[in-house]
Amino acid sequence: MLVKLSLRLITILEMIPSGSVVADVGSDHGKLMIALYEEGIISHGYAIENKPGPYEILKKAIMKAELIDHIVPLFSDGISELPSCVNTVVVAGMGGKHIIDILKSHQSKLANVSTIIVDGHSCLPLIREEITKLGYNIADEKIIKDSGVFYEIIKFVKSDTAMYNESDVEFGPILRQEKSATFKEKYNERIKEIDTLLTKDLPVDVVEKLNKEKERIKGII
Ligand SMILES: C[S@@+](CC[C@H](N)C(=O)[O-])C[C@H]1O[C@@H](n2cnc3c(N)ncnc32)[C@H](O)[C@@H]1O
């Protein structure tokens, strides 16, 4: 691979089905799309940006890599102008609510999209709940620690049979079964955080909420 990727972007890249037509929403520097082409995972795709600055950087990066015939830079908002040939959408490196907004505000554009890969930096339970409601189930999940930060990357695949309980939604149906070392590390750190918070003078309802969260975590790890 010529372009250098972070562990987070490598993890996303490895979850993308080979031969798919990918749109990377919020492509920024275009690194993921360029690496996907260089690795032979895709032969063409779309790199979407909605801000002039990042869009110019993106276009320059694609031209520098001499991939303008394979990766089309699109200046547009989210999936509002998603080409109908796209079957895999990536939305990475954004807050969970923003990712959900991007997908929900142009649902008709998802008609041909069989795979959605999401790296949300907040509201992971909401992401699981809302994207499932759009007609997808969770086919894969990865948890990684990159430069000291935990990331959960979720792969959704179109299906009409998604049944998840509260623990699945909160911890991830696959992650909570796998219980990887990174998963345990994340939640052991959260327990320590909660214990520190509980030494402070907090309102009763907050204490109760934190204690309940701690119990749920202990029941899983
Ligand atoms: C923090 S960067 C993440 C870049 C890359 N996806 C990654 O994971 O490393 C978020 C990028 O998404 C773009 N973005 C945010 N909202 C967007 C939207 N609605 N449509 C297209 N791009 C968007 C921003 O301009 C920014 O370049």
What does this structure look like?
The protein is of the alpha/beta class and 221 residues long. The chain has 2 domains: 7-162, Rossmann fold (3-Layer(aba) Sandwich); 179-221. It has 9 helices and 7 strands; from the N terminus they run H-E-H-E-H-E-E-H-E-H-E-E-H-H-H-H. The chain has helices at 7-14, 31-38, 52-64, 96-104, 124-133, 166-171, 175-178, 181-198, 204-220, and strands at 22-25, 45-49, 71-75, 88-94, 115-120, 136-146, 149-158. A hairpin with a 2-residue loop joins strand 6 (136-146) and strand 7 (149-158). The two termini are 36 Å apart. The protein binds S-adenosylmethionine.
Q: Mind sketching the topology for me?
A:
Layout (H helix, E strand, L loop, with lengths): L6 H8 L7 E4 L5 H8 L6 E5 L2 H13 L6 E5 L12 E7 L1 H9 L10 E6 L3 H10 L2 E11 L2 E10 L7 H6 L3 H4 L2 H18 L5 H17 L1
Parallel strand pairs: 1-2, 1-4, 2-3, 4-5
Antiparallel strand pairs: 5-7, 6-7
Helix pairs in contact: 1-2, 4-5, 8-9
This protein binds S-adenosylmethionine (SAM).
The site of S-adenosylmethionine (SAM) has 14 residues, from strand 2 and strand 4.
State the secondary-structure class: alpha/beta
Name of the CATH superfamily of the largest domain:
Vaccinia Virus protein VP39
Count of discrete alpha- or pi-helical segments spanning 4 or more residues: 9
Number of domains: 2
For the biggest sheet, the summary is: 7 strands, mixed
Count of beta strands = 7
The end-to-end span amounts to 36 Å
Highest-level CATH class of the largest domain:
Alpha Beta
Catalogue the unreliable spans: none
Overall CATH architecture of the largest domain: 3-Layer(aba) Sandwich
Identify every distinct bound molecule in the structure, by name, code or SMILES.
S-adenosylmethionine
- Give the mean pLDDT: 97
Strand residues, percent: 15-25%
CATH topology assignment of the largest domain: Rossmann fold
Radius of gyration: 19 Å
User: What percent of the residues sit in helical stretches (DSSP H or I)?
Assistant: 40-55%
Across the major sheet, the strand order is 3-2-1-4-5-7-6
Provide the succession of SSEs. Answer: HEHEHEEHEHEEHHHH
